[in-house]
Amino acid sequence: MNAFTGELDHIARVLIVDDELRNRRLLEAMLVPDGFHLFTAETGEDALAVVEREAVDLILLDVMMPGMDGYEVARRFKDGAATKNFPIIIVSALDSHEARMRGLLAGAEDFLTKPVNHAELRVRVRNLLRLKTYGDYGIGSGGSREPGTRARGGGESVSAEAVERL
Fold first, then answer.
1. Is the pTM of this model over 0.85?
2. Angle in degrees, CA 109, 138, 35, rounded to 5
């Protein structure tokens, strides 16, 4: 799987949010070989600030952080007009059914338990980027849109052709 560039596409942008530097670096190390443009944030507040400055395609989000926890961060992203369609994968040491349900109910599309399996992370990131692209461009919705146009706003996104090359 490789990230992508091209005339109408861009390199997929992934935000990694975790208060532990070691965890951020580990996730970065797993995704760097795929060519993604990576951003990191140490807190929920930092994550909200990054997304205000940068167009992000997907968010990897820890739950247990000081200050605003990952559940609240996910809710805020899903409540925002410009951020509600960003896929969120919660990456947490919590592995109970209750923790997973809280994450999904807060708006996360997926939940991975630490330690994260490298191959599983890559596949889930790829799949959610593909789904986001389909939504952004209206692919598969029965609509007829010109390539490069979006069904809804929210920053630059990745073309369907680019995601298929993953």
1. no
2. 60
